[in-house]
Specification:
Blueprint: E1 6-7, H1 12-18, H2 20-23, E2 28-34, H3 41-58, E3 63-69, H4 74-86, E4 91-93, E5 111-114, E6 126-128, H5 133-147, E7 152-157, H6 162-171, E8 178-182, H7 186-196, H8 199-214, H9 221-229, E9 241-244, H10 248-260, E10 269-272, H11 279-283, E11 290-294, H12 297-311, H13 317-335, E12 349-352, E13 357-361, E14 364-368, E15 370-375, E16 378-381
Parallel strand pairs: 2-3, 2-4, 4-5, 5-6, 7-8, 7-9, 9-10, 10-11
Antiparallel strand pairs: 1-12, 11-15, 12-13, 13-14, 15-16
Helix pairs in contact: 3-13, 5-6, 7-10, 8-9
């Protein structure tokens, strides 16, 4: 079978041919820490299946996947990680959830490629591989530049990931005019958005202008008044794009409130964070067009098709990432002459996977993402 990964600087074929004698003596054991039982077992089983697809694609008997059940519990995660260590495992894909990272720091001679996108306050032996906020904001920044967007406001909910977004803004190339925080409670949300968009003042502007015209000698005042009466507001909102760091129903609530305050996506860029390719977004035509960064859709669709053909059900989105991580580890180990140590994640490197381009440096992984527009119930790639 053809090797799955494409190399940026040196081909797999070259490494494979020059390292044959070394490979014959060393088998790479790659650990996998995922929930195989309990509430999130479907996620774990999907990840296991995707890594097996990657192993089959690589087609090298010297790399082996050893899965262990975290039971979605930090204590169990640590116990299973120790079992992997006893088996000679040095690199682990997983855990899946942030809460399961807390006790892994004591295994400082192991490397864990967590599937989360949380990058702050992690143990030193954890490398977050998820689509982190910084990667997304740098992609949005490119869109800002391409469209010459001047004033962007950032709407951030008071949720657990707020700190991740705040730090990502500081580290990224994104230009923000103002950052606003909001409560997702629907009973409070609209009032908050009204304040941000100066809705009351803009409504008053209509009344004031109609009153001025009524008392003026303008020969066209009746025509102008009729036009104004059809409008809801008058005056500038003070920004030309809005980034909404929210998802699902909360995202819908925010966009609904923006539209209610006469901020429309045809006049102002509505941008959000990675929504993958959630079909529910296609149905919400009221807030289209809407823009967001995400993974390579063409490759994602191909992966879903391959997975479904093999297992007769659809994969979890994290499975797409875990598929790539097998190839990433294989590539880095080959580049390091089939040796495993933390150096492979320290030096600057790039890997082109199915998700997109992985940028590796100083035990951090960022992603070069694509940018999409949803309009008229269709997804269009911008870049």
């Amino acid at each position: 079978m053809k090797i799955f990964v494409k190399f940026i600087f040196i081909s797999v074929i070259f490494f494979y041919s020059t390292c044959t004698s070394l490979l014959a003596q060393n088998k790479i054991k790659l650990g996998l820490l995922v929930p195989m039982s309990g509430e999130f077992s479907e996620i774990g089983q999907s990840i296991i299946k995707s890594t097996l697809l990657a192993i089959n694609k690589i087609d090298n008997p010297l790399i082996e996947i050893i899965p262990k059940d975290t039971e979605s519990n930090p204590d169990s995660t640590l116990r299973k990680a120790k079992e992997l260590k006893e088996l000679g495992v040095e690199i682990v894909i997983g855990p899946v959830f942030n809460k399961n990272l807390s006790k892994l720091e004591e295994l400082d001679d192991m490397i864990f490629l967590s599937l989360t996108n949380k990058i702050i306050d992690n143990p030193k032996n954890i490398i977050s591989t998820g689509i982190n906020a910084g990667s997304q904001l740098n992609t949005i920044s490119k869109f800002q530049k391409d469209k010459e967007i001047k004033k962007t406001i950032f709407l951030i909910p008071n949720k657990s990931y707020k700190n991740e977004i705040e730090k990502a803004i500081k580290r990224s190339k994104l230009k923000t005019f103002k950052v606003h925080y909001y409560d997702s409670d629907p009973t409070k949300l609209t009032k908050q958005i009204e304040k941000i968009t100066k809705y009351s003042q803009r409504k008053q502007n209509i009344k004031d202008e109609i009153s001025r015209l009524e008392n003026s000698d303008d020969p066209n005042k009746e025509k102008k008044i009729k036009i104004l009466e059809k409008r809801d507001t008058l005056g500038k909102i003070g920004f030309d794009s809005v980034i909404i760091a929210d998802f699902d129903e909360s995202l819908k609530s925010i966009t609904t409130s923006l539209i209610y305050t006469d901020v429309k996506p045809v006049d102002t860029y509505f941008i959000t964070l990675n929504q993958w390719f959630d079909e529910s977004l296609l149905k919400e035509t009221s807030y289209q067009p809407i823009y967001y960064p995400s993974v390579n859709k063409k490759n994602y669709d191909e992966f879903v098709e391959l997975y479904f053909k093999e297992f007769n059900h659809y994969p979890n989105q994290l499975s797409f990432l875990s598929y790539d991580l097998v190839g990433l580890v294989y590539y880095l180990i080959l580049e390091n002459n089939w040796n495993i140590d933390e150096k492979i994640f320290l030096k600057k490197n790039k890997f082109k996977g199915k998700v997109g381009i992985f940028e590796i440096k100083d035990k951090k992984i960022n992603h070069v993402l694509n940018f999409y527009k949803i309009e008229n119930s269709n997804i269009k790639k911008i870049f």
